[in-house]
Amino acid sequence: MAITLSNQDLRAYVEAKGHPRPGDGKLHLLGMRGCRRYPADGVTISLIEPIPGAYDDMVGMFGGDLALFAGTVDPGRHYSLHPMRPKEGCAHLVGIDEPGGKPYSYKRGLHRGKAAAFVQNGANVVWRDADRDMGQDPNEVARSEAHNGINIHRMGTIRSDIGRWSAGCPGVMDKYWSEFWKRSALAHPQESYVFYLCDFAAYAKWFDSER
Questions:
Q1: What's the confidence (pLDDT) of residue 40?
Q2: CB contact set of 79 (below 8 Å; sequence gap of 6+)
Q3: What is the rounded distance in angstroms from the CA atom of residue 35 to the CA atom of residue 44?
Q4: Which secondary structure element, helix H or strand E, spans residue 3, and what is its range?
Q5: From the CB of residue 138, how many other CB atoms can be counted at a distance below 10 Å?
Q6: Rounded CA gap, 192 and 141, in Å?
Q7: Whole-angstrom Cα distance, residue 12 to residue 203?
Q8: Over the chain (211 residues), what is each successive 10-residue block's mean pLDDT?
Q9: Strand duo 90-93 + 193-199: pairing
Q10: What distance in Å separates the CA atoms of residue 15 and residue 8, rounded to the nearest whole number?
C-alpha cells in the first residue's frame, strides 16, 4: 500500500494519537519507521519489512515544507551489540503512536560538538535493549530520559548497514543530508522544532480507516 503524505493528514494523525495538533506556520520534523519512498515526488511512501541494522526508515519534515529522506530512527547493529551503557542496553526512541511516546523538542546545534544537527532540547522517551537482541521484550519498558544525546544528524552511506552511525539517534543518509538540512534548518530557522516519530504500519492502518 502506497500513501502520499499531506500536511492535513499528518496533523490529523497526531491528534488521533492524543497529542496536540502541530501548529500552523512552523516547520516540524518527521520520522517514519519501516517504510520507503517513491523518489518521483519524495512524499509517497510504502510499507516495508523492518531490517534491523539497515536504513529502513524515513526522516524529513512537514508543515512549512513536506519531504522525506532515507535514514533511520533506530540504532545500528554495532551499538545494539556493544551499547554505550552496557548494563542498560542501547536506546530506542518511542514514537507518538506507542505507549508512553510523545512529540520531542529539538533545536539547531552540533552533534558531539562537531557536526550540524538537530540536538535534544528536553526529555525524551526510550526503551533500552538490555538483552541486545534488537527487539523490545515485555520487560524492556519505556522510560523518560533527560540527557541521553539522541540527536538528529547525518548518517552513513551503505543502505544495508548503519554501522556505528547511530547509537539511538535518528538521522538521514549522507547523500540526502545536505538537502534535508537546507530545506529544514536553513530554510526555516526557528528557536525550536518538534519531532514527530511515527510507525508507518500504524499510520497506514489509520489512513485506511479514515477513507
A1: 67
A2: 90, 164, 166, 167, 168
A3: 10
A4: strand 2-4
A5: 5
A6: 28
A7: 11
A8: 94 98 95 90 91 96 96 97 96 97 98 95 97 95 94 96 97 97 98 98 96 70
A9: unpaired
A10: 11
